[in-house]
Structures are given as structure tokens and as C-alpha cells.
Amino acid sequence: MIRARIIGCGACLPSNIVTNDDLAKTVDTSDEWIRERTGITQRHIALPGEKTSDLALGAARAALADAGIDAGELDMVIVATTTPDESFPATATVVQARLGMTRGAAFDVQAVCSGFIYGLSVADSLIRTGAARTILLIGAETMSRLLDWTDRTTCVLFGDGAGAVVLQAHAGHGDNADQGVLNTRLFSDGRLHDMLYADGGVSSTQSAGKLRMQGKEVFKHAVTNIAAAIVASAEASHIAVSDVDWFVPHQANQRILDGTARKLGIDPAKVVSTVAQHGNTSAASVPLALVTAVKDGRIKRGDLVLMEAMGGGFTWGAALVRW
């Protein structure tokens, strides 16, 4: 069996760090209020002129260097983002050009905070079917561009950044001992649109709009849906949730991470959390957390890693990977 093995990863964060105390100077909030409700202490915010493609390119170069390959070996570039540079073309094509990649294809995936999981599923399918051998998958966002900076219930939650992985075809035996993506599980429910959305768009308001969220409802659905996705992915590979070595969740809110762990009886020590340093970086949050845990030595080759996310739409999903 052909598996999509992750052979390298990398990240890129804006140099501009905004702390909770910084936000308290411009909006009615405080460090204590934010930390108690979200676990966030700071976030990286793109500087004027710093675009999603800039962050995506930084993460891409880091991932390629980690994989030990150059852009000429890539068959495809996939960028998961809800904050593209332009309405068109795809931000992935901008990255493709700036990498000097002149072959293959590049396209974007839009599933908001679940974008990286959706993109991983697409990349895995393309590699399994032989349509591509080596794919660069990037989750990149400048969520700060969508925020209403007068709304303390949303502007304190989000940050900007990018994370990337290089996936390559790898021969396996078809069992759970294989390195690479073992399974992905994707879900959505468009009826829940009004709980988390941007109030603009090309065909409706001719503007990007601002992020709007019903926080309590999102929290309730997030814990339920993410827990269900984790179970679905574990069951698809006939393992127990307790068999997973590391959980790398979407970094939306520390309370969501804690609530999901409690619901499934997961040891909190096995949950990778970067929300305190990054905030919610939407499609970038899972790869940013993944890179953090790989680089600090927690995730090692052979470990069983389960990634999951939920975003506006609602979309949600999980992916089980043998590192």
C-alpha cells in the first residue's frame, strides 16, 4: 500500500507579538480576563503589508529544508487558508511562483479552522491514487485582517501564522505500523452557519467582512464534534483512543482542549497546546502545534499522532498519522 508520509515540517510566525496587556490598551479587556477564558497570553499579528503568502512561503521553505528536498521535486502545493491574498488567483499559486516551482499544480482549500485537516485528506488521497508523489501542504492565515478590533469577545482570540508539511509517497504494508497518514475523517454541517462566519464576501457585500461568533454555542459544538471525530478516526484504524501517543488539536481555546480531553479520558500531558503563545491561527494552528512538538522532541518517529480541528461552516475532522 502507498502511504503519504510526512518527511518534513516547518513554521513561520510574524515578528510582531501582541500581548494581552497590549490589547487592554485599546479594548475593554484585561490579561486576567483573556487568560481565564481562553488560556491565551499573546498572539503574533502580521505587520502592514505582510500577507498570507509571505507567511506561507516562510513555512514552505522551512518544511522543504527539513525534508531535505527542493521545490523542483514537488508535484503539488496545497494552501489551506480562509484569508487569501486576493479573491483570485489561489494563494498557493503565489507560493508556487515564489518557490521557483515550474511544474505540477497549486490550489487552495477553504474549510476555515479545519482547512489543514481537509488539505491533509486531499493530499493523502492524491498520493494514494498515484496522482502525485510529493506534496507541500501549508496552513496559513492572517486572521487579524478579518477581526473587528472593537469586539473583545473575538479580537482577543486570533493570531496570524503558517505551518507546513511535506508529504511523499512511501511503500507500506497496509497496517497501523506503516509510517504516514493512516486515515482521515471529514465532516460538516452547513445548518450551523450563523454560529461562526464572516459577514462579507465577493458575491454578497463585495468586501471581506468581519468575523462573527456565538462563543458559547461554538464551545458546546466544538467539544462534542471534535471528540466524535477523534473517536471516528481511532475506530477507522481499529485502535483505542488511549493507544494514541500525541493529540495535536486545533488551538482555538484552552478550555476546548481541556473539555475534549476530559470527555474522552485523554491524559492532558498527551495533548499538544500552543494556544497560549499563538492564539487561534485557524488553518495554521494544527501545523504550528505539530511543528512545535516535533522540534522540541516530544513527537518522535514511530509515534501515533492524531490531529483534529473544527471551524466555521461548521466543518470538522481528524487525521491519524504514524510519524
Summarize the structure.
By secondary structure, this protein is an alpha/beta fold. Helix content is 32%, strand content 26%.
Write up this protein:
By secondary structure, the protein is of the alpha/beta class. The protein is 32% helix and 26% strand. The protein has helices spanning 20-24, 31-38, 52-67, 91-99, 115-128, 152-155, 215-236, 254-264, 275-278, 285-295; strands at 2-12, 17-19, 42-44, 76-80, 105-109, 134-142, 160-171, 180-188, 196-198, 211-213, 246-249, 304-311, 315-322. The strands form four sheets. Strands 1-7-6-4-5 form a five-stranded mixed sheet, sandwiched between helices. The chain has a four-stranded mixed sheet with strand order 8-13-12-11, with helices on both faces. The protein has a two-stranded antiparallel sheet with strand order 2-3. The radius of gyration is 18 Å and the shape is globular. It starts with a strand and ends with a strand. The relative contact order is 0.19. The model has no long low-confidence stretch (mean pLDDT 97).
Indicate the topology.
Blueprint: E1 2-12, E2 17-19, H1 20-24, H2 31-38, E3 42-44, H3 52-67, E4 76-80, H4 91-99, E5 105-109, H5 115-128, E6 134-142, H6 152-155, E7 160-171, E8 180-188, E9 196-198, E10 211-213, H7 215-236, E11 246-249, H8 254-264, H9 275-278, H10 285-295, E12 304-311, E13 315-322
Parallel strand pairs: 4-5, 4-6, 11-12
Antiparallel strand pairs: 1-7, 2-3, 6-7, 8-13, 9-10, 12-13
Helix pairs in contact: 3-4, 7-8
Low-confidence stretches: none
Order of helices and strands: EEHHEHEHEHEHEEEEHEHHHEE
The side-by-side strand order for the widest beta sheet comes to 1-7-6-4-5
Helix content: 25-40%
Beta strand %: 25-35%
Report the structural category.
Answer: alpha/beta
- Give the N-to-C terminal Cα separation: 17 Å
Mean of residue pLDDT values: 97
Number of strands: 13
Task: Give me the number of helical elements.
Answer: 10
General shape = globular
The major beta sheet can be summarized as: 5 strands, mixed
Indicate the radius of gyration in whole angstroms: 18 Å
